[in-house]
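This section describes the prediction task in plain terms. A model, or a person checking by hand, is given the sequence of a single protein chain and must write out its three-dimensional structure as a string of tokens. No templates, partner chains or ligands are provided. The sample shown here is typical of the held-out split.
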Amino acid sequence: MNKLVKEILFWGGALAIIFIFCKHKPFWISIIWILVWGVFVELVNRLVRSWNKGRKNSEKSTDPRFNTPQKALRVALNYQISNFLFAFNPFLLVQIILQIAGKFWERNFCRPVLQAEQYSQKTDYILPITSEWFVFNGGVTRETSHSWGIPTQRFAYDFVKFGKNGRTFESDGRKLKDYFCYDAPVLAPADGVVVKARDGIHDAPFVGTFWMDCFTRNIAGNSVLIKHADSEYCLLAHLKHGSVKVKVGETVKQGQEIGRCGHSGNSTEPHLHFQFQNGKSFYFSSGLPVKFSNFWRRESEQKNCIKQDYISKKTFVSAGE
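The expected answer:
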């Protein structure tokens, strides 16, 4: 819906609540109902926008998950409603509040890195993957950033794998094993010490429907945080349930398998979320840009060996051979 329609709906409903439905009730009850109405209007607004976007995409998409208007609508509903339900999960609600607090903390008390070239990394890093993967999301500029407004995820990446069919999955994508990256090994990008390791969170249900796991206990799902140098940590997230192979305090070597790619936590489909940050906290640290060493990068049909460089979304990358 456009801005005018949204405002008319909100203010019309707010006036109706004040002068009709809650006319003889305490003022604070009216305020609560107005807040609820505002949330409802915003949800409808997002659904309409998602539906319009999905309908346009479905006209040119061959993805069987949303290649018709009906499927696109279903996907949009699943995604938006499940995100809305996050607010009713106390574990996730606390984490969302902490992320907001982290933004305030960084803005007022930190000096974050905002220009990649201004940061000098303290060690050499390799890609945490084997074979060729696609950088679905992430980069070192505001335009390519995974989530510029979230401090720890400013320079984060999402990796997926494509098959010969040009998709990230085979069949209809409704099973975890359909996804080419699922259960693929995830590696330590450099020597370091494990400071946090989480396992035991089940992979999200209803894979292929874009229904987010609103019952999960942690946004990052199963994850491993490794300290590589002073104020230089990496987080590898959304790992497969039961696949984490390291423990807190364990020393790991570059290239060592630390877990398997999964679909746990806040995940729309199986993928690897990977980020560097300057502290242990997922909420009160700032993201760091790093260059990776000795990897291959493929854009279009050209494949080049890269000695050291940043990576960015919409490119295929693979570990050095």
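For orientation: The radius of gyration is 22 Å.
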